[in-house]
Specification:
This protein is an alpha/beta fold. The protein has 16 helices and 16 strands. The longest helix is centred in the first third of the chain and has 31 residues. The structure holds adenosine-5'-triphosphate.
């Protein structure tokens, strides 16, 4: 179903357009108005996916109507109807944000193509909006405890800079989430954030993973392959679990950071890269340095700014908000009706030792949502939370 509005002062043209469009697809609902003001009045009552608007009209002309639509309803596609002699104005309208223009008298095929394309664009724009909303919801950082507020303040200050950031905190506390926020709030957000889980890559492969390789560099290198540094060019490289990186890989990362250049495995040319590096670890890097497992010079390169993400045990006052947040998400994802979490349940949740932090908390909430009745109680938490 698409809502289409025709604003055109010539009755004959209005009727022709209306008939052609309405006959094309019976899911199109077509309204018309004989001047700009009447059109805008209709738009105030109903949302339209597409407006076809004449340029020359008595009173408010098409350009004025277009300006109004662009400022009030920027998601609506506008196609201008140009008469003889106002093609130039039609082109100007496109610069102002109109999707396209058609000439009078309307050519059937061109009109229908334009209508279809304009509606496709509107639908795509709506889908992109929904997806963006979903993605930003996925990365929502819930909680306003003092310690989490400090983290959020740091993100606001540090994100727009080029500073490297070392994110420290226990497993599942939200380090990756912090990295996403730092990237999204930076100038680099239009370029990708590339993630590397240093713990998951065998040490003999990490060099090729980070810097890429040339065909023939080793037996399985059947073609050239770009590394993560190159893929993140212009954006952010997130080195997760950096404390698990081998000393030899650390030496190479250090060189890449010092020189902003990398050399693919088996390659002889250096490649310049423009990458902001964020790193995260759950290890105590000072201890790793003392044990000879982490390079001190790399630590200093990475830790221009250090953000410490608190474990859930240090911010149990956030548990009511987190319970509500995950409750909503789980109910949406699993198609389960929203449940009430009573005060005893919250108290019981706050009494637990959350060594797995937010990740563990989310899993427990999911279990409770699936296993309990419409109201989650303290007894439910005792019964199901640790199983
Ligand atoms: N403050 C928060 N509000 C809502 N969700 C959160 C919050 N912190 C973390 N999460 C969620 O908890 C899960 C674990 O977070 P994340 O992966 O960022 O942790 P991590 O510290 O990087 O874990 P690991 O050490 O295992 O890599 C994710 O699903 C994340 O979205």
């Amino acid at each position: 179903m698409a809502n289409i509005l025709i604003i055109e002062d010539e009755k004959a043209i209005r009727n022709v357009l209306r008939n052609i469009i309405a006959e094309e697809n019976n899911s199109f609902s077509v309204d018309d108005a004989e001047h700009g003001k009447a059109g805008l009045d209709l738009m105030a009552e109903k949302s339209y996916d597409l407006v076809l608007c004449d340029i020359k009209m008595p009173g408010m002309d098409g350009i004025e109507v277009l300006d109004k639509i662009m400022s009030l309803y920027p998601d609506t596609a506008v196609v201008m109807i140009s008469g003889h002699g106002d093609i130039e104005t039609a082109v100007d309208c496109i610069k102002k944000g109109a999707y396209d223009f058609i000439s009078k008298p309307p050519d059937l095929n061109r009109l229908l193509n334009t209508v279809r394309n304009a509606l496709d664009r509107t639908q795509l724009a709506t889908e992109v909006k929904v997806l963006k909303k979903k993605v930003s919801k996925k990365y929502e950082m819930i909680g306003d405890s003092g310690s989490l507020s400090e983290v959020k303040d740091m993100i606001e200050k540090v994100a727009p800079t080029e500073a490297r950031v070392l994110i420290m905190g226990p497993n599942g506390s939200g380090k990756e989430l912090v990295a996403h926020h730092l990237h999204e709030k930076s100038e680099r957000s239009k370029a990708p954030m590339i993630e590397v889980n240093c713990a998951a890559i065998p040490s003999e492969l990490i060099e090729s993973e980070l810097f890429g390789h040339k065909k023939g560099a080793f037996t399985s290198a059947v073609k050239d392959r770009k590394g993560k540094f190159e893929l993140a060019d212009g954006g952010t490289l997130f080195l997760d679990e950096i404390g698990d990186m081998s000393l030899s890989a650390q030496a190479k990362v250090l060189r890449a950071l010092q020189e902003s250049k990398i050399t693919p495995v088996g390659g002889d040319k250096e490649i310049k890269v423009n990458v902001r590096v964020l790193a995260a670890t759950n290890k105590d890097l000072q201890k790793e340095i003392a044990d000879g497992k982490f390079r001190e010079d790399l630590y200093h390169r990475l830790s221009v700014i250090v953000i410490r993400v608190p474990g859930l045990n240090d911010r149990k006052e956030d548990i009511p908000q987190l319970a509500e947040h995950f409750g909503e998400k789980i109910s949406e994802e699993q198609g389960i009706a929203p449940k009430k979490i009573n005060a005893d349940a919250i108290k019981a949740l706050q009494a637990f030792d959350w060594t797995g932090n937010i990740r563990e908390f989310r899993n427990v909430m999911e279990r409770l949502y699936i296993l309990c009745g419409p109201e989650i109680t303290g007894t439910d938490v005792e019964q199901y939370a640790r199983k």
